[in-house]
Amino acid sequence: MAAVAVPQAEPAPEPGPGGSFRRYLARLGALRPQPGSERPGGAGGRRTELHLLFDQLISESCGPAAPAGPSPQDVCALLVQACQLVNFDQEHLVSKVCQLIHHLLNRFQVIVDEQNLNFLLSYSISALKQCSSWTHVEILQALAALVYNNGPKCQKYLPDLLGKAGLLLQFSDSAQPDVELRRAAVRSMANLCLSVPGQPYLDESYRSVCFQTFLSILQSSKTSDVDDITFCMLLQNALKGIQSLLNGGKMKLMQTDQLGSLLAVLKKCMFHGLPGLSIEMPPALYPAPLPQYDKRSPVKQEQSELAAFKQTGNRRKKAKGKQKKGEFGEDTKEDLADTGNESIHEIDMLKLHLGDVQNGPCSDPRTHALDVAYMPAGKDHLSSHYNSWKRISSSESEYSDAEGGIQSKMRSYQAKVRQGALACFLSAIKSIEKRVLYGYWSAFVPDAPGIGSPQSVSLMTIALKDPSPKTRACSLQVLSAILEGSKQFLSVAEDANDHKRAFTPFSVTIASSIRELHRCLLLALVAESSSQTLTQIIKCLANLVSNAPYNRLKPGLLTRVWNQIKPYICHKDVNVRVSSLTLLGAIVSIQAPLPEVQLLLQQPSSSGLNNSGTGTPHRFNSSEQWRKTLPLEGEPPDNPGNMPSEPCWLIRLCISIIVLPREDSCSDSDANFPSGSVYEPSPVRLESLQVLALLVKGYFSMAQSYLLELGEVACKCMEEMDPSIQLHGAKLLEELGTGVVQQYKPDSAIAPDQRVPVSVVVAFWTMMLNGPLPGALQNSQHATLQTSACDALSSILPEAFSSLQNDRQILCITLLLGLNHSENPLVKAAAARALGVYILFSCLRQDVMFVADTANAILNSLHDKSPNVRAKAAWSLGNLTDTLIVNMETMGQSFQEEFSDLLLLKMLRSATEASKDKDKVKSNAVRALGNLLHFLQPYHITNPRFRETIEESLQALISTVQSEATMKVRWNACYALGNVFKNPALPLGEAPWTTQAYSALSSVVKSCKNFKVRIKSAMALSIPSKRECYGPTEQFCQIWSALVVALQKSEDTEDFLEFKYSASLRTQICQALIHLLSLAKNTDLPFILETITENGDAIKSYVLQYMKSGVEENEAGMHIDLCEREKALKGAIEHLCGIEKQLEGKARIRVSVYLEDILTNHVNATELTEA
């Protein structure tokens, strides 16, 4: 075996761990045999010296941890030199040197470098092959320590370890009688499966071998000759191995058999040793087919789904809670070095958590401190403390009776198996498509038990009954992962109507499961004493609320959640408070507005808050007075009658948390938060701000009476030093502004007298602009805040903006124009979008200078390197060109003449260039092109400087209509061509591009798979107002023919979602056909008559349907009523009669007779209906 160079010991080693190691290195170097110096009996003396030296090293490695350990290089050098001194025939020394490898690598968390790893691995593998079986456990422990996080460096040893006759496969085989040996082999295999970021993972063949090995171990039953604890450790190692395979990102569980087998053993292990529960699992679980993810009709599937669903019904469990994978992720060198204080600390932690159940939430301050430490505040971040589920003592057997006795020890190991199974399930969930996972829903999520039948076991069984708080939290985390993204699956649930059928529909079964989840989670909420687990229950409830279709369920579920969560808003633990607010945020944002939530928000402020005993529910009552103590600049006069008689308690609560000093400075046991803070901890305040923003967004009618007060809250937050608080203050401001704007939209259902008065909105924005908003907009050190402030400023009500003082209007415009030149793409994009909003304000759009300044700023952004900036700028350019058209129609030529020709040409060129950009830019660029070409005057069109640009613009539009771009781009291009056709100054019907434009639209109206594109093309074809605009007879007839074909194909679609647009498409085509008939000249009639002769019946039925279809709104947003349709048809008949009279004798063509027949049929049908 090739020796590895080892550094020589220094003559005078320094004190400390490093020096101590170098002394051992020096002693080992002295024992190395020198050539020719070996004396008889010297080998025996050296062997005795090695025994003593190894014993001393092992003893030291098991003692109290030193503040600073030796360097990894020294550890590796010592181990290599020790192996070089021990031959394989010295088996006691081999055993000791392997123990030394195991202890030192674990104790000092050393990952062996590649050169030394090669030597030590070769040594270990050779020792396994040559030494007696009694040494194999120690050798395998050393091997496990060596390969930990070193899998990619072990590639050349994999055939020896995992090949067909691999050592690890032999030792881990189910026929292996020595369970300790089997466990050590499985552990080594599991460590080999650990992935290393950025390094290649195990080949598929090795992954498959390992997976099958781990799976067979989990499927095996404990035999009588194996003690419980050893069997638990074997299961733990197998679970850790499967989790590593799943986390490696390479293993996707696609085969039903493989996945079903894994889920079956995970379910079995999830309940391993759970007191009072013994379940028998089949070898595999099988999924139920799901209509939500299937192409088949849900109606046809109902019975087959129910049958499959009920097959797995007896394997259900109860569930709740939420956490993320990291909490149960791979440990940091865990199993390999758990001597000394590590194992004692783990046992103490377990005792503390078990004590929680009996002693209540306040019994032991250490318990609470641990609970808080486990969960960082705020979102679902995972603590490394959870890695301890696999952290067994170094030998995995050191556990004295003084530390709890054999029963306590066994319960601890059984709990670790359950935690390991849950952690593994969590990794499996991330490796499975949601549509596949939900086929197994009934095996893991509870359903209401049938009459007389017991409750099936589920994840909720663990959450309600497991004695270990950590295991309960694990099950809740898994349930949360299942619920996350389940909206589509749960969307079929419905129990709003009592069903009276012979079978239970799938929708009712899912609704029943949702109800049972609510019931069980609320039970767990009341019963839980561990703050950390309590946090998980509430987060799980929030996930459930975010995905359940409450609008399809009987009311009452949210009311129970709402009333039970109120006391926890004032809980002593900061993480419980944060998660409680998260849950309230989920309730006010789900399918808003829900009548049930509207009623809950109107409840008296004291309802449900006085039964906790753990908080100070009266705190927020004083929040109504908080403004009296805050001198606010420019505060508007009181608005009598603006405040409701019964305030919204949730708004009052959130305001109090955000702005009032905390009453009990010692209420939080989490030392992570600064004790000197006047206010609630930052995560609680941030969550309160988010709840306010969600409530304003979903229930603005409840919040509008607090507009000025909430504005002051936003101001106060933006004045603080914490960037997160500032940012959420700006986001709250944006939601308030948007809520007001929504009320004033033309299609708003809010009665004018119910809206926020414009005077109040003006006072609100005056307060903002006199406060911290301008400073936030200019805070270049905090680009995210600038972005949010831009978004907020763009949410101002146009009617209020026009009433602001002149200097405030100029301030807004100046800031936005300036930010449009920001170097930060997020800020620049937000500023470009805001300018696109302002350009639509009636008080600004008629100002030629403002329009010009805005146009230049937008064009600058349209050439930015950031696609997001260009997309926002294109949207704003589309709005700006809409403004040009409105000004042209309202102000006439005066505005057109004032607007710079050079700027107009620049806009045309930029929009043409942008129409070749990405689709997000292109969709608005073509909209702008259509408007600009509509805006052009005759002198522009005859101007030589414009001629080439106009031609390029038209070609860009035509090619976009024919392109394979997204449908939104194509229908915008069709709409833009329709706009072009409205400009009488363009030579429509004469120029060569006319033929290309009509040809493109005719092709699209017949064959595009998207009906909305067809509708826009038919609309564009019906816009030219004169017959000569359609060109020669041949071209006119091609358009007519295309529309007739399109009408006949108006129901042909492969996509069911398009079918809902078919009626609108037929309406638009019929309008276009009647429009063409009203313009037709005598040379067009022969072809039209020929078409009618061939397809007259079909056309007649569609036109009659169009005539009697009542009042409809077409795609242009115009109402076409019955009278107007009759008038258009009569106009076409009169026009055709006039032309036909000009034709003489037999050549006379009577298309008008055909239309008169249609009109007569329509009139008769109408009279019959009225009669």
TrEMBL record:
Organism, as annotated: Apteryx mantelli
Biased composition (Basic residues): 313-323
InterPro entries, A to Z: ARM-like, ARM-type_fold, DUF4042, HEAT6
Xref: Pfam families: DUF4042 (PF13251), HEAT_EZ (PF13513)
Residue segments, region Disordered: 308-335
Protein name: HEAT repeat-containing protein 6
DUF4042 domain residues: 416-597
Signal peptide span: none
Basic and acidic residues bias: start-end ranges: 324-335
